[in-house]
Amino acid sequence: MNNDLEKRLTAYLKKTLRGYKHRKQEKEQAVQEEFNEIIEQKVSLQKYLEKAKDELEILDISSDCPEKAFTNREYYEAMKKVDKRQKKALYLLVVDELTAEQVGKILGTSASNVKKLKEKAIKNFKKNLRARNGK
Known about the structure:
Elements: H1 2-59, H2 73-80, H3 84-94, H4 100-107, H5 111-132
């Protein structure tokens, strides 16, 4: 009887251990697949970031030359003719999202004058566009 019990116990342990081994292999495979997917996403993200960085370097827009932001040649030329101080005020207000008070400190003028510079920049931009189109 002892021998029969030993055989049954051995068979049960083998079956249990085979099942455990199989489940362990499945789990390892799932983890490896998930890891590979994460690596692929990381590589894709790195490529995207590198491309975005390259595109930003190409633009190289500053408050002194905001016209570089325009891909439309007419807009570029119209903004290029706007007074430098007006362009700078417009850039700092719109692109850098500074307040009129902050821009005033940078330009050494009042907040109300900054607002006037912005209005003049927009007005001159529109005027330059009309002149370019012959209107």
